[in-house]
Structure prediction request, 570 residues.
Amino acid sequence: MSTENQETEAQFESEEEKQDSQEKNSNPVKAEEAKLKAKYPNLGQKPGGSDFLMKRLQKGQKYFDSGDYNMAKAKMKNKQLPAAGPDKNLVTGDHIPTPQDLPQRKSSLVTSKLVG
Amino acid sequence: MQSVVQTAGAGGGSNDVQWCFSQVKGAIDDDVAEADIISTVEFNHSGELLATGDKGGRVVIFQQEQETKGQPHSRGEYNVYSTFQSHEPEFDYLKSLEIEEKINKIRWLPQKNAAQFLLSTNDKTIKLWKISERDKRPEGYNLKEEDGRYRDPSTVTTLRVPVFRPMDLMVEASPRRVFANAHTYHINSISVNSDYETYLSADDLRINLWHLEITDRSFNIVDIKPANMEELTEVITAAEFHPNQCNTLVYSSSKGTIRLCDMRAAALCDKHSKLFEEPEDPSNRSFFSEIISSISDVKFSHNGRYMMTRDYLSVKIWDLNMENRPVETYQVHEYLRSKLCSLYENDCIFDKFECCWNGNDSVVMTGSYNNFFRMFERGHRRDLTLEASRESSKPRAVLKPRKVCAGGKRKKDEISVDSLDFNKKILHTAWHPQDNIIAVATTNNLYIFQDKMN
Prediction:
């Protein structure tokens, strides 16, 4: 009896699977959407809406916190300034970039490699 | 007229044209510097010049050499003509905004005299560049030596008239106009009007009209910024002037619509004259719908009767007289539909592919991934997939058509969807205005292909 049940269960499962794969074939996009929602359940209520657009409009925006900057400056006064050149071991929060040690954004004075 | 839907077909290509490798420009090594990423490619109106812009703000112009009698089997090669730094990185301290030097678009002006002019733009500033040749110089000054040093006046005993003598060709690029401070948002398009006096520049929310001679003023002709930014639902993605009607322009949106505006109707063209939109089947609506419907490029046909739009998965051709649906739709890489989740995660779903027409508007071309690019032959309903790669780079070697296997059994010579390299994207392509010569940009290389001449 139990084997019969198991068999019918197995049958049902494979039918469901067939239905699933049929759905996938007929609408792969819906399957992809389900995958995405499973990974990121909190993904925006507005699909493709303002979040993307605001991010696009904000491109290039750099933020500066004067409070952090002044705190760091005050801290620095009591200690030696960290050695010039990036010290990657510094804990964030202890080291605020100052204009002096930001890499200068210079234009590439190198000729394009498309030129021979 | 029936809407024609194209699927990846036999890939035989047109019966007339066989595409052959001609040239490749750029470094061979895989380690690509950011600055070398090509960001725009554009032929000039005669096709003699080919300009590229890159992420490093540089412009390189190639010139086609004159056909020589000794080489009847190929058209002239493109060699470097001029290169210059068009834009530099900037920082707007007032807005705390970093402004990239990347060249977003280059547009040539029609040639009026011996010099060539082009407009190049980054996110914020458009520049008009003059490229001129100097092939003679004055010699025989009275007061100067040939090397420029001044002569001792007491040694000057005779008078002579300096004459122009030939010199080695020198090509000079100089910025003639700088059109700045007119865009709050990032410029995505520039387009020269058929009146050859004005041009438009479009950013995410506004389109401005400029006169080529005037840099301190521009007119705002489209403004879609909502009063409350929380209500923002769409942005402008591309804009172009009609090729021969100087009052007509179109702009595309992130929601997949195209608006045609007539500047004669009103000073501010917020109200469109025509709205082109294909209704979506509501049962197909998904999280991805809007993202993949966002139009990344819009181009009028040369004859001005049609326009082409590129969205993430397809190319659509619209008859300007029919707003409710495109007259032709071509699937570029339909097999990506089942990969949208991972394409969203790696941001590829936001890639902005461009598209272009051939000279007589019979074939359209666009790029894809794995360094593949696609051509769709409108009349014959044929499509072709080719690859820009160093492997198929023997001189005049005919390119072999490629095929992607969407699922199931992979045939020999086919490539499976999972093997595609999504870092190798062809976003920018250009077609010579008259001949079958195409320029295809991979990440950092420029390929030039020609049709086989027998």
